[in-house]
């Protein structure tokens, strides 16, 4: 039975990849509740990705990193008051399932919903919810996200709906991000939150040489830019991508023919925008993406225990460059 809801809050504070894989729920919520107001609570750093989203009414931000660093009581009080003054919501859905996100949800209001204690990375988060949903923690991350929202709001998200999803983020059409038109345009994401998630720069340069297309190296921060410039010096097919904001990054990726990258936020944007992609996995696995005929994962030989991730697993370097190149040519050749 469909619930009557006029105000819905989504709590997903971080990280970039998780926000990308969560935002798919917006189009399904809007389809079933076309007149509801939908707000999103997130970390300040990720607000630019969400603020122009046409399916959101408002984006509210917190700076928990600053709060943790400064340990300021006045800043804590200000943050708590901000949450408590957002108004009353019919339901507040915590998509993150951590203690910090559960506390944020509960500070906003009492009508909270989240993963139950057996479905969460931090089981005690369930104590802050009025209602809960049960789905195995090791299930696919996109399936978990869509199930949680659908269960909370009284509808179903089918595999067919995910297969036929609309691009998740709006694209800025006024940007001068012109790509080449004489060859295929491939984005390569070289960064990641852990060193063990990164495919070695030497192998990326070799991959560019095998592909012989326009290979744009996506970077963020000085160290990544240094690595990107090194790759460009080693391969005539590698091109340094411009410095991009989050919204510009979405628009840039949306113009490419294929994206290849590590298990990190910018890589997930390709699936979000219905662009073909290859995600490389070492210490993590394909649970982190929603695989389709044009969005695939290549996993290193190591075994992964999703409950106890080994950040010292550098097996991603064992993925052969030739394997990636062959899959890339297959995707580009299929024209999908």
Keywords:
2 domains; 12 strands; 6-stranded parallel beta sheet; 336 residues; Rossmann fold; alpha/beta
Strand percentage, roughly?
15-25%
Report the C-alpha radius of gyration, rounded: 20 Å
Runs in which pLDDT lies below 50 for 5 or more consecutive residues are none
Biggest sheet, spatial arrangement of strands: 3-2-1-4-5-6
Count of individual beta strands: 12
Mean pLDDT: 94
The overall number of domains is 2
Q: Architecture of the largest domain in CATH?
A: 3-Layer(aba) Sandwich
* Count, helices: 13
Q: What's the CATH first level of the largest domain?
A: Alpha Beta
- Note the run of SSEs as H and E: EHHEHEHHEHEEHHEHEHEHEHEEH
Derived structural class: alpha/beta
Helix content: 25-40%
CATH third-level topology of the largest domain: Rossmann fold
Largest sheet: 6 strands, parallel
Gross geometry:
globular
End-to-end Cα distance:
38 Å
User: At the fourth CATH level, what is the homologous superfamily of the largest domain?
Assistant: Glycogen Phosphorylase B
Describe this structure in words.
With 336 residues, the chain is of the alpha/beta class. The chain has two domains: 7-163, 3-Layer(aba) Sandwich (Rossmann fold), CATH 3.40.50.2000; 185-334, Rossmann fold (3-Layer(aba) Sandwich). It is built from 13 helices and twelve strands. It has helices at 16-22, 25-32, 47-50, 64-70, 73-84, 99-108, 141-153, 159-163, 201-211, 222-234, 246-254, 265-272, 321-334; strands spanning 7-11, 37-43, 58-62, 91-94, 112-115, 131-133, 185-189, 214-218, 238-240, 258-262, 277-281, 295-299. It has a six-stranded parallel sheet, sandwiched between helices. Strands 9-8-7-10-11-12 form a six-stranded parallel sheet, sandwiched between helices. Helix 12 (265-272) links the parallel strand 10 and strand 11. The longest helix is centred in the C-terminal third of the chain and has 14 residues, at 321-334. The protein starts with 6 loop residues before the first strand and ends with a helix.
